[in-house]
């Protein structure tokens, strides 16, 4: 006797990486085009913001429009406020106001049509915090609060910073949301036989603005994040890991001007695994008796 078992609940984890995270828009574009349903999402930093926008009903096409708008340096610079905050080096008032304009200043995570978790790290407890309820704008600000760059965000007694410190691709959070088939997107993967900077042009924007010691510090941080990400993914065991081959010149600091190319890297990387995903989520016949 055979019975058709339902498809598994599908979860999508989107990792952090600054402008590199725009590749997630391309991933979502392909998943929508191929009618792959998403039952839950988790995200960190830029991946968290895109998770929030998608859960609010923003289509990949609309998110691409926003990204291309930010690709214009004149529009991007309107968010830059170097008036020193109490912590960090860049004030986030303008970014917070823009997010509130997009999603609504009173929008709450638990009211979204898709269950989501936004990843942060609590500086008090030194532990990962998955935000699954509360004010959406504040959660977005917390998950993307890069330590030293943006000020931490205080929520419910926690002092929260960018979740990439401990869990940059939060596939584990999807298990907590009941997901059975996990798709993880790692846009910050640099652990390979090539140096992170092997394809970084000598005239790359990041070299113009950051001194050599800062580049060394940044590279060391990326190595740590990549190592932790591999460890976390080995424990969470996602069914598919998508790693778009984004050039090193697109990074946490610079690269928004390459938005369209970065999105296309997400498209191409997802197209390469779409058959595997389709097969993995297909309802199966189970034999009884």
Describe the protein in words.
Helix 1 (23-33) packs antiparallel against helix 3 (60-71) and helix 5 (93-103) crosses helix 6. The N and C termini lie close together (6 Å). This protein has 289 residues and is of the alpha/beta class. The chain has helices at residues 23-33, 46-55, 60-71, 73-76, 93-103, 136-143, 171-176, 205-209, 212-236, 259-271, 274-280, and strands spanning 2-4, 10-14, 40-44, 116-122, 127-131, 153-155, 158-162, 181-185, 240-242, 285-287. The protein is globular, with a radius of gyration of 19 Å. Strands 2, 3, 4, 5, 6, 7, 8 and 9 form an eight-stranded mixed β-sheet that branches. The protein has a two-stranded antiparallel ribbon with strand order 1-10. The longest helix is centred in the last third of the chain and has 25 residues, at 212-236.
Features:
alpha/beta; 8-stranded mixed β-sheet; 289 residues; single chain; 11 helices; two-stranded antiparallel ribbon
How far is it from the N-terminal to the C-terminal residue, by CA? 6 Å
User: What structural category characterises the helix and strand content?
Assistant: alpha/beta
Summed over residues and divided by their number, the pLDDT gives a mean of 87
Listing every helix as H and every strand as E from the N terminus to the C terminus, the arrangement reads EEHEHHHHEEHEEHEHHEHHE
The share of residues in helices is: 25-40%
Largest sheet: 8 strands, mixed
- Tell me the overall shape: globular
Strand content: 15-25%
